[in-house]
Amino acid sequence: MCKIGKFFLKLLGILFAANAALFVVFFFDLDGKLLFNVVEPFLKKHYDNMERKDVLQEAYDMDKFPKYKY
Amino acid sequence: MRDLKHLIYFENLLQEANNDLVKQAKAEGKRAIGYTCYFMPEVLLDLPGCFSVRLRAPRCVSPDLATYYLSGRVCHYARSLLERALEGGYNFLDAQMGTETCTATCRFQEHLQQKHLDSVEDMRIIDNDDFFCEFTDIPFKNTENSYQHYETQLRAHVLEPLHEHFGVDISDEALIKTIENHNEVCRLINEIGDYRKLDNPTITGYEFHVIQLVSLTCPKELILPYLRETAEEMKTREPDDRKNFRCKVVLAGSENDDPDFTKLIEGCGALVVCDRFCYGAVESRVPIVLEEGKSPLRCIAEHYLKTSNCPRFMPQDEMRARKKRLADLAKEYHADGVIIASNKFCEYWSYERVIDTFILKRDFGLPVCSIEKEYINSASGQLRTRFQAFVESVEIKHIQEGK
Amino acid sequence: MAKNIKKALKDFWYGKPHTAEEGGRRLGELYEDKTGLLKHREWRGFKDTMYYMYNIWGYNYVHMVTDILKYSKNPIDFFKGTWRYRWMGQTYLPVIHWFERGLQGMRGEALAASAWHYRAMVSASIHQICNFFNADTRLHGGKETEAYKHSFYANETTCGTLFYPWKDAGYQYIPMEMIPYFVTCHVNSHTVLNYIDAVQSIGLPGDPCPMCQAESGLFVLDDVPDSAPFIITCNEACDASVSTHTLQDWFADKPLFALPLPMQFDDPLVKKYCMNEIEECWKFIEEQTGVPFDWECMKKYLERQNKLQRDEWEKWEVASKTDYYPINGVAQALFRIYSTQYGIQGTFWEEASEKVKKIMYKCVEKKINPFPQTRHRVIAWSCAPLYYSNWCTWAYNCWGLNVIINMDSLMFDMEIRTDSYEHMLEDVAQYHMWAPMRRMAVGGMHHIFELWEYMEKFNCDMVAMYDQLQCKGMQGVHGLFEDEFRKRNIKAFWMPHALPDCRTVSRAEIRRQINDYMTTVMHEEPLDPSLLDFDDSMTW
User: Fold this and answer.
1) Are residues C203 and B347, on separate chains, in Cβ contact within 8 Å?
2) In a domain, A61, yes or no
3) Chain B residues with CB inside 8 Å of C263's CB?
4) Residue range C422-434: average pLDDT?
5) H or E, element range at A25
6) Residue A62 lies inside a defined structural domain of this protein
7) Minimal Cα–Cα distance from A8 to chain C, Å?
8) CB atoms < 10 A from the CB of B227, how many?
9) Total structural domains in chain A?
């Protein structure tokens, strides 16, 4: 078999393997499981621990903005 | 203090929507026009031949039927009104002037409309052949466009229907005369209310609340002599030697037509010196000024939009300014703090209360007691505890300030 | 043996049949307990499984990346935003599961057409997210970038149509809460709970509309990007909506224009007022941006919007008169509300609509019934539970309840004339007054009782009556609906819920209510009994 033929066979093999792997991820909802069990808890922890501005300290100026009338 | 001569009479008038003075006016052939909201100008409903009745449902603690219709998850006030209507308590009404200004009272009024739906028609809630219910669209701003719109709406949905149905005179002359009568009521109420500004006030918040309510729920012409007499009586009324309160407060918040609530606050030592809530006098008893070059109706439209402090007003400057106006009232009435009371399920005041609670305290240094209440306050024990704690905190603040 | 092999081959090729009598696919058994994750995805037959894997699952994962590259000025901002904002990180990644929940059990044309609606919504969402992050000063070291200066915020219920005149001048309107609140509820119902709790923590009672609570809570948790120099708000749809702006104004502290719409919109006298208010709003935008109103630009986008509206009418025509409408209930409802609310901001709506129409006409020509197990044609009325918008998919799979149309889809139901400025303004006013949660819920209770007309128009024999427990307007007509249902002998079931808050009424409770109705009132047997009762309390 010529080199090109081997290359295409190899390529087909890789594509098939990639598709098979993708199918396993898809069919067994591995993406969902990863997101639910690992990514989301990690992000939640990050957001929970994030330092946030205390908005109640925001100024509330009575005259800061004009009356918008036209 | 000496008892006010007409207080018990006034209290009795508040026991029923269809009270003695309403019955008397009806017997004289006048038309009773119901309404619920400040934005329905009472002055228009007091034109010759008719009179305004701001609806209340006193002593309604268990609105079971209304809860079927409105569910238990809307405000108790709207449910109580519907319950009272279903019981026949508003059959004396000849018309209801509706506003879609808050959802719950709007739904109550829509139930009275007797059109659109078979079931509503069947219900015939107001058992009166002449009865009709008309809605007016109320603007959310106080701009030129809003004034024009409001004026157009009041003409189309208040004046013209009153004329068409009951032959009411809606001429400018009739309006001017009615404004004069209205202003007299305002003048008397303000005169009586101003005694709350004294260092040792000669009128309690409860008494004033009762007087203000009778002025909203009774025909003006019939209640006026009593108001005049009370105003006279107030001139010579002496306060008790010792102050019988521990602090003074402004009471602000949503719908409140329950003088017993004011009494409850005062029973805890806080004298209510200013009433900035729906049914209160702060806005509703500002006299209407007739301006040259403007029709009386236009003056009325501008008046009600300019004087309102309702949290449904949306312009940014207005949202902010009404906090300051509340703080100014506390200053004007020499109040030591503010009680903000929102009715359960009242969305406007739920939000407004949150902001008022922070801003009045932080930016104006006013102690604030923030509470949620029912239309009829059966859970008074809990509220009493809250008010007592608030009064104590105000006293401690005074001690710390060396007052 | 041979029979078994034949059946296995048939199942492999076509997927298992729907009903229990035919051997059943038992979709409920695919779920892991509580999480709602799938033990494995459904085998829909060879063709549909491959279609789902490549054309939906794979295609959308790829497009989630390419859309970012397309709409983002700098893709790094996207990652910075994901790290900064909870609604972003928690919501973006489970998007494919959102598809999964909405498309479960769908086959053939129903699967393909419904997925196109989802695809457009995802694309529009990424468009909005990129607009947020392109302009957000927080992601740019406090700098007011050109994108910031060319953006303006509007409350999510202010319809995008109003802002077309500034589009060609490079100004982008961003609905302030549509992604952070509305979309998150559909995709990941966990996120919004943080915002509801946040606003209650500063003293707001638990009873106002939870949508408005969440919209305020976003600000309380300081989780709204700083992406625009000014804000436009409106009074849609309720008291709490109006009040929400008082809190938002405090925390955003930017120039804010209030655009109130009349409540009594049947009254011809209100139109002039409404038109003036809209013109004032436009003047405010001109003042803030320094860019004048562009009539040609307005006209151009309105014409595209009108075309989209006509497409929708074509779809409704098929939905109402035939059994060949290929869109499921949730895809119909969400596409309509997303597209009308956001307006023409890209080409995603139009592209999806064309694709769906093609599939739909194929169904009509070939007489393909995409929902062959339909037992009842259902109209869903009032506002839907956002955390369980895919209940319609479940209801079809379990009971054969096919939701044909819903109340929210029927809002904005008009074309806007573009032959003159005056006509346009008049129609835009009407259009905005007919906005979601407004067209039926305000201006007189007769609007909400238009249900009967729409039931007839869409040939429906059953009503799914949403019961948003904290919506005062809808609670206020509860008893009359009961009376009317009885009087008219209409088959209707109530679905209690709390809009975004799945803690108040769980999904399982919603299903139980429907199950009870279908068994005790309708005396029917489920198509797929495995879906009757399962625990998905922790699901997205």
Assistant:
1) no
2) no
3) 100, 106, 137-138
4) 94
5) helix A3-27
6) no
7) 22
8) 23
9) 1
Range of the domain at A30: 3-50
- Average pLDDT of C160-166? 95
Statement: residue C304 has pLDDT above 80: yes
Bridge-partner residues for B253, per DSSP?
A: B277, B341
Q: For CA atoms C491, C494, C499, C503, give the dihedral sign.
A: negative
Which of B335, B231, B341 is CA-nearest to residue B274?
B335
Q: What is the pLDDT of residue B117?
A: 67
Chains in contact with C via at least 3 Cβ–Cβ pairs below 8 Å: A, B
Alpha-carbon distances, residue B397 vs B75, B388, B390, B394 (angstroms):
35, 14, 11, 5
- Listed by start position, the domains of chain B span 7-173
Helices B172-193 and B220-235 pack at an angle, to 10 degrees, of 30
Query: Is residue A65 a part of any domain in this protein?
Result: no
Residue B121's pLDDT band, with cuts at 50, 70 and 90, is low
* pLDDT attached to residue C439: 87
pLDDT at C474: 94
A55 → chain B, closest CA residue: B358
Among B314, B322, B355, B360, most C C-beta atoms within 10 A, so best to mutate, is B314
**Residue ranges per domain, chain C?**
9-531
**0.80 exceeded by the pTM?**
yes
pLDDT higher than threshold 80 for residue C345: yes
Q: Which residues pair with B338 in a beta bridge?
A: B250, B368
> Is C98 touching A (CB cutoff 8 A)?
no
Q: What tokens appear for C173 in the block?
A: 């309107």
Is C10 in a helix, a strand, or coil?
helix
Domain membership flag for residue A36: yes
Give the distance from residue C212's alpha carbon to the nearest chain B alpha carbon, in angstroms: 10
pLDDT bracket for residue B377 (50, 70, 90): confident
Q: Are the beta carbons of A40 and C90 closer than 8 angstroms?
A: yes
Give residue C492's region: left, alpha or beta (phi > 0; psi -120 to 50): beta
Q: Would you call B317 and A67 a contact, using CB atoms and an 8 Å cutoff?
A: yes
Smallest CA–CA distance from B143 into chain A, residue: A69
The CB-side HSE value for B93 (13 A sphere, CA atoms) comes to: 33
Residue C208 structure tokens: 């106002």
**Is B320 close to A61, i.e. CB distance below 8 A?**
yes
What is the SS3 string spanning chain B? CCCCCCHHHHHHHCCCCCCHHHHHHHHCCCEEEEECCCCCCHHHHCCCCEEEEECCCCCCCCCHHHHHHHCCCCCHHHHHHHHHHHCCCCCCCCEEEEECCCHHHHHHHHHCCCCCCHHHHHHCCCCCCCCEEEEECCCCCCCHHHHHHHHHHHHHHHHHHHHHHHCCCCCHHHHHHHHHHHHHHHHHHHHHHHHHHCCCCCCCHHHHHHHHHHHHHCCHHHHHHHHHHHHHHHHCCCCCCCCCCCEEEEEEECCCCCHHHHHHHHHCCEEEEEEEECCCHHHHCCCCCCCCCCCHHHHHHHHHHHHCCCCCCCCHHHHHHHHHHHHHHHHHCCCCEEEEEEECCCHHHHHHHHHHHHHHHHHHCCCEEEEEECCCCCCHHHHHHHHHHHHHHHHHHHHHCCC
Alpha-carbon span C265 to B34, nearest angstrom: 23
Which phi-psi region, left, alpha or beta, contains residue C501 (left: φ > 0; alpha: ψ -120 to 50)? beta
**Which CATH class, in words, describes the domain spanning B7-173?**
alpha beta
Q: Measured between alpha carbons, how far is B339 from A32 in angstroms, rounded to an integer?
A: 51
Q: Which of C230, C256, C265, C273 to mutate to test the interface with B (most CBs of B within 10 A)?
A: C273
Q: What's the per-residue H, E or C state across C222-237?
A: CCCCCCCCCEEEECCC
pLDDT, tens digit, for every residue of C113-131? Answer: 999 999 999 999 999 999 9
Taking the Cβ of residue C97 and every Cβ of chain A, the question of whether any pair is shorter than 8 Å is answered with yes
Task: Quote the CA–CA distance of B165 and B158 in Å, as a whole number.
Answer: 11
